[in-house]
Amino acid sequence: MTQSEERSLANIFQLVELNIASSYSQLLSNKYESVKARKTQLRQEADRLHIFFSHIKNPTPSECVAIVNKLNATSNDAIEFQLYDAHGNSMVTPSHSAIPTLSEIKNPRNRSLQQITHPDEVNPNGEFVVFTPKHDPEETKLAYFKPYRKKQWTIAAFTPLSDIEATAERRKKKLTESLDKAFANMNVFNSGYIALFEEDFTVLVNSGTETLSTALMQRIITASKKGQKTLTSTHRQKGVMEHRFFLFRPLRWYVMVSAPVSEILKPAEDIQRRMLIVVISVFFCCLLVSMTLIEHTLHPIRTLTRFARRLPEKDFSTPHENDTELSSLPTTQNDEIGDLARSYEFMCHELKANIQNLMDATAAKERIQGELNVGKEIQEGILPKEFPPFPDRNEFVLHAFLEPAKEIGGDLYDFFFLDEDRLCLVLGDVSGKGVPAAIFMAVAVTIIRSTMQEGLPAHSAMDKINNALTRNNPTSMFVSLFIGVLNTKTGQLNYANGGHNPPVIIRNGATKELSGISGLVVGGMENIPYAPLSITLQKGDALFLYTDGITEALNKQQELFGADRLFTLLETYADHPVEQILTEIREHVSTFSGDEPQSDDLTMLLLRYQGHQCMSSPAYNCVENS
Known about the structure:
The longest helix is centred in the N-terminal third of the chain and has 52 residues, at 3-54. The protein is α+β, with helices and mostly antiparallel strands and 626 residues long. α11 (434-452) packs across α12. The strands form 4 sheets. It has a 5-stranded antiparallel sheet with strand order 6-5-9-8-7, sandwiched between helices. A 5-stranded antiparallel sheet has the order 10-19-18-15-16. It is 44% helix and 20% strand. The protein has helices at 3-54, 61-74, 113-116, 162-184, 214-225, 261-281, 287-310, 323-327, 329-332, 336-382, 434-452, 458-470, 548-551, 562-572, 578-593, 613-616, and strands spanning 80-84, 127-131, 141-148, 153-160, 193-198, 203-206, 230-235, 239-248, 253-260, 396-403, 411-417, 422-430, 479-487, 492-498, 504-507, 510-513, 533-536, 542-546, 602-609. The N and C termini lie far apart (84 Å).
């Protein structure tokens, strides 16, 4: 076999392998994205249930079970919620899906779910488990467990994966159909063929006209396990056949390209025969005519050889100047050279299409990234960014900081005067991340500003804001929210806390959390009453507001930054300027997390009250030390 025919057969073989790998990559990517979306949905639903429990002052089992039953009854998705006590026993009446007991189910590490769902065993961020119920071995379920340590309970959300598996099987079937069409367009010499079969001798694709024998498939499987890639067999009509094969391990498929050895050698034999005839015919003629005929005979092969050697250097995103030279061969050559040229053309066409698809996907990604950047600028424009925000007011100093976990986030802060002496402070954390959270955040900021301008008390305004956000909220998003109104003359702070982290007062170098919650998170449930709360700030006191992205920042050991570290930093830098305090906290959180990616938005607001004397007494020192 000459080098040219060897490259021809090798190129066909490589093209088949690339085609299968490309199609399987798309199949695997679709399945991965489906499972990833299902995991995100389970986590969000379980987190929402966890937040509802956390904002009940002293939840009883019956109250929590009632919430779970209500969610199970109203859920539009194929998701079932369960609540387990510290012994792994279900506290909720099983539904029609007949979730088995936790002791009957084991995860891939061969640990029973009863061990995994123990509150002391579950990862603080929750844990996913895929299992098959005993009562339905054909069904596969995905479960997410999240600890509720306040009561030593475990929240669980279950969903079936049968639809994803069925979709994957359908796509796998379409894959074999597309491969059947692709192989049919590939010419393997004159009577060669391409076949695809499984280890159980099931033939998936066969571009030939004859049935693939079980004995040949068995020989190929055995030879592949030994590391071999080629073998020969004898055919009654075609003579000696050469078979090249490989195992596509992800799907356990065997791919075989077969052709008669006589057809593989035929181009070289034809060329040699024609050369001999030419030499004998023109032997008594001039040497120049002989060389001209030989050159004419070898021209198609040399054209293919030059094209094959230049192929790695070609830019498939633009037309090629030499393509016309190659495209003429299939029409002018009616032998194996023409077949090889057509194979090259098909290969180039497929490569161009794949590269164009890749370019389109890259352009779409860049366009989406550009839109996200514009969204980030719009979101940043909603919140105040100039500090000091009120340079003509000396009763207080104020600074705020927001760093989203993604391009855009769901945290928010705001501050504005309601009248000459009343300053409104707002800080919140929207459930979820990304574009949905950013849109919900923008709506929340707009409603908060318009509602507070009506002059309502903080708790009454929060009740109205909650009802406004709850209506037309199909995604069940919510926001933990703090709204406070500070009288800059008296230091009186009237506020409402809707399921948010308690504010921190820094007084005389010591920190103290303001206990008390006005009500549940805002936007989760309509017509929830919110209780009024208040405190009087003394001269020199500082009010610190933050979101849980600070205290729940993780390091490589999956340890939380925690409230203790935060309060220690506040006490250490208590006498520093407010902007420097926030900068020190951000740097400590970044150092603590190291290379661990930021999991949540980081938002802080710090106000230091300096007393009304700053407005009336020039002798009073109201300038903050730098």
